Amino acid sequence: MKLVELPELIELNDFSGDYHSFNEAVYQIFKNDFIINKPIFKGKRLGLKKHPIVDGKEYTYYHFTHSGNIEKERVPDFRRMERIGYPKPIIDYSDCRTLKVWRNKRGNKNRILILHEEERYVVVLDDRNDYILPWTAYFIEYKNQLRRFLKEYEAYKNAETAD
Fold first, then answer.
1. Are residues 109 and 126 in contact, defined by beta-carbon separation less than 8 angstroms?
2. CA gap 43, 47 in Å, rounded
3. Quick one: which of 50, 80, 137, 149 could link to 123 by a disulfide (CB 3.0–4.6 Å)?
4. How confident is the model over 136-156, as pLDDT tens digits?
C-alpha cells in the first residue's frame, strides 16, 4: 500500500501577487489532474461536472477552488487554490492507510469522503452509481469541523463492522 505523497502548495506569492496568473496556474494543475489525467477511485475512472462553464473553466473547478453557500456568489478560496494538487493523489491512493474513506448521504446524494487527517483536507466525491464525480475538496479550518468528520467516520466504520 503506497503512501500518498502530496505536492507542495502553490501560492499567490509565487506569482508576485498577480491573481490572474495564479488562477491560471491553479487551473492548469486542475486541468492536468482532472481532464487530461483523470483520477481513479477504487478502479473506477472519475467523470467531471463541466457545466455550467464559468469564465472558460469547468464547474468542478469552482467547487474545488471557491467557497460559499450560494452558487452564484462563490468567492476564491486561497486555501483551496493552494492545495489544488492534493485531490488527485488523495483519490488515486484512497486505499492508503493514512487516509480515512467513508460513505454518507446528504439529502438524496450518495457521497464518498476521503479525509487526510494530518493535512486537515477532505475530498468529496458524488457516487452516481454508473460513475463518480469529484464534487469538492477543501482545507478543514476548524477543529470542531475535523472532529465532526472523525466522528462520522467512526460511526461509519462501527456500522460497517456491525453488519
1. yes
2. 13
3. 137
4. 999 999 999 999 999 999 999
CB-CB neighbours of 153 under 10 Å: 17
Is the entire prediction scored with pTM above 0.85?
yes
- Domain range summary for the chain, segments of one domain joined by +: 12-158
> Is the distance from CB of 153 to CB of 115 less than 8 angstroms?
yes
pLDDT digits (tens, 9 = 90+) for 108-146: 889 999 999 999 999 999 998 888 999 999 999 999 999
Please report how many Cα atoms fall inside a 13 Å half-sphere around the Cα of residue 58, on the Cβ side: 20
- State yes or no: cis peptide before 52, omega within 30 of 0: yes
Closest-CA residue to 42 (of 111, 94, 1) = 94
Could you tell me which residues come within 8 angstroms of residue 130 by beta carbon, excluding any fewer than 6 positions away? none
